[in-house]
Design brief:
It is built from 7 helices and 5 strands, in the order βααβαββααααβ. It has 173 residues and is α+β, with helices and mostly antiparallel strands. It has one domain: YfbM-like super family (Hypothetical protein yfbM fold). Helix 4 (90-101) crosses helix 7 (131-154). The chain starts with a strand and ends in a 9-residue tail after the last strand.
């Protein structure tokens, strides 16, 4: 499963919630302002930020898998908690950005513990074999996440998260 984060103006988000019925509808929306592809790194990034495999304490628990489901209609409305497309309001984006901005890359580096990642079965399951490059990749993803949320907050944008194996390689340019 891969993760893709998108920014969108709150009004445009309302329209997207009404009209979108597929992942592709969301990805292809002309209202999307910026994208951040975290690929499969998202799981480890979430774990290092929250100390949890999936959940965690708000607001950081919603940094990659957002709080509210986008799809409010079939086939997703009965399983809204498992919806692959979710969003964070502008207010929550601000709270997440505040929490992320308080962490330095040094703080983040200290959170890397290969044995805990392996024990929690965080993808890719072989943590510690190439510790230096693993840490550098995660720090890069962390700083990109910080920059992404900083931009969203500064621009008063909502954030959409997509967690799916259907995302594929996302062209960012």
């Amino acid at each position: 499963m891969e993760a893709l984060l998108l920014t969108i103006h709150p009004y445009d988000l309302e329209q997207l919630i009404i009209r979108a019925t597929t992942l592709e509808d969301v990805k292809a929306s002309s209202s999307i302002q910026t994208k951040l592809s975290l690929g499969k790194t998202w799981h480890a990034l979430h774990f290092l930020l929250t100390g949890q495999d999936v959940a965690g304490e708000p607001p950081l628990s919603y940094n990659i898998s957002a709080q509210h489901p986008v799809f409010q209609h079939p086939p997703f409305h009965d399983a809204a908690q498992q919806s692959p497309v979710r969003y964070n309001t502008v207010v929550l984006v601000s709270e997440i950005e505040h929490q992320l901005s308080r962490l330095t890359t040094g703080d983040f580096r200290k959170r890397y513990k290969a044995d805990e990642l392996r024990a929690s079965k965080v993808y890719p399951h072989y943590w510690g074999e190439h510790a230096d490059s693993e840490v550098e990749e995660l720090i890069l993803a962390f700083t990109q996440l910080q920059d992404f949320y900083q931009y969203a907050k500064k621009s008063n944008l909502a954030v959409i998260s997509m967690l799916s194996s259907e995302i594929g390689n996302e062209k960012l340019i």
